[in-house]
Amino acid sequence: MSTPSPSTPDHGPTGGPSHADHPHVHGPGCGHDHSHDHDHNHAHDHQPSGPVALTEQEWTRRFLLFLELLVLLLWAVVLVWFYTSGRINHYLTSEGSFRIQVLIGGLLLGVMGLFNWQMRAIPDDCGHDHGEGESCSGHDHDHDHAHAHHRDQHDEPASFCSPAVAKSCGHDHAEGETCGHNHEREDDHVPPHEHDHGPHAAHDHDHDGTPGGRGMALVLLAISITGAAAITPDVFSDSYKQNMLMADAGRSGPPGAVPAQHRLSPATPIGEAAPGAGLTLETIEKYQKRNKDGNFDLDVMQLYYSGSDPEYAKVMKGQGVETIGQVVKDTSTTEPGRWRVFVLQMTCCAADARPYSLPIVFAGPVPALQEMGWFKVKGQIDYVEERGITVALLRATDAQPTIRPKSQNAF
Amino acid sequence: MEDSSPSFSRMSIPSPSPTGDIAFAFLSILLEGAPFILLGALISGVIDAWLPSGAMDRLLPKRALPAVLVSGLLGIIFPVCECAIVPVIRRLVQKGLPLGCAMTYMLAAPIVNPIVALSTWTAFQGRDPLLMMLSRTGLGYVIAVLAGVVISRFAASAVLKDSVLAKISKPVPAAALSDETIARAPTDHGKKFVQAMRTAQRDFLDVALYFVVGVAIASILKTQVFYRPALQDGMALVAGNHWIAAPVLMAMAFILSLCSTTDAFIIAADNLFPAVAKLAFLVFGPMFDLKLLFLYSTVLKPRAVLLLGIFLFLAVYGAGFAMEAWWPWLKNLTWLKS
Question: How far is B32 from chain A (nearest CA, A)?
């Protein structure tokens, strides 16, 4: 063990996974000191394994790296698939760049996994070619590593990589970067040994995982995303929606200022509370087209928010509108023929969606509405004071069952 | 599938169900967060490969308190949300960033950053937006700094996970970073790139594992427990109680595990809870929620995570009372009324 030999990793081909089995597995770069005494003279000149027979440890590393590749590819496939199939529209808002981030993220994950697999033969700098996979794992690094070295007794895995050390090491890693390992312990090696501490990454792996633990973690990562992707219905169940709606009822206050995406006409510059004083029906007609019945096709959000803007309320009052949403009986009142139409609207992702609703009141006979059914409701929009708040209310004349629209952020 | 649009009914998407609700919520948070975790992991890889150890330290003031104070503001320059910041912090700690500074940055960045400030201001339009934005940012900053100061009094070995601790590199003394040593730095960017990618992959997988567990629990609680009608009855009662309104919203923030750019939109429209309780929701959530509980576990010892959570809870709760006392006065400041 005292003569660095260029081609033989210190631990030799029989290195087992445990400390007991082979105490010298790691070399200078493992980022920790081991509590046993040993003088290790590492073969720093190891070459990328190539045709040389791989050690058992190296096999474990590569197997784990391969598992990592599979997991990353699986995630990549799910992310890219959700994006390209359009299913992403049910999960993330069209606002901002959330959807495209999923595509880019998926592609990057795949590229990263393939790249690292491709580069698997490039040694890490432990002086032997174990990689990030388990490398120094296989034994427990969670203990306090205190190495007794011949020359410098360092008891904390820190000061390595200082320029001075780098100099004495004669190898070419730079002062600060990473390493995360003690080079001081390379006392024995002959100064001009040229080992290349290129990719230090190896040392930043979690040392708290045994190969088995790592494997389990990877399996969990794989099944969680595939399992969820396999069973997700892309929508919340009606009972959950209803629970949310009930929780929300009586709690939501005035809508507040109208968000830009729910305005009936473009906003005035940010910061101005109300659109210009000159808002007329003509302005709204410029941006919201009437359908063949002469009604505006507006979504629930637009109608809901129109109540919070006096200008809109003044202009829109009495206008014919049609909107699509799920309907429920309004239990907050005894007024006959009163229902609510609602949609869930997400802010960023489906999990943050909350229900937005407006009351619908049928003056005449109530059509055959089905609780939680999707309906296209027609009528005149009105604005009334309820609990001290001006709210939009739809005086409905008709409601037809319909299908869930592929609306961008509401579902 | 009746309620699905035709193009989707062709695909065999399962019917909505309680299990489906969990999977749907889980996947939506996962799809939202995963790209940010990858971003954080890639930044971590770049830091690992190219940033000299202790460089962050040199950028910060030498004395501990000013350093912590500055760290709390780093989010303004590097706005990162809470998912992306954890891998970055883990790496920076290993690069010699003092623990107090690292924790302050980690806690403050998701609040004290321009994107979150803007979203808070937008969400609270018509409800004292400026006051809410400023008090959220200010309170977030103060509490993050407090936490940083407290944490910096502990030994790193008491706080950090052993695996993180084992890889801390000592900062290079500034004097040692002479031109000569810099000139001797390896110039092989190809190798550094390999290193960066390996680190990024490892960090992504490490952090994603904890993220997945946290998000799964949050999804179950949110879809199966949180909106249970039985739980709602007491809500109005709770909201009117000045002792428990804020803790209830903080618990809500903890369970919902929202992104800090989103949470203001969720809570702003609530008419039941007082503004100060909403403020507690907005300050506590980005610092400590279910997904963060697990993400922090990639850096900190379990006991440290627990103590941090208790500390943050008490700090936000206590600050809430101070804010409650000042709120009417603050509300009447004309320059805050816009």
Answer: 7
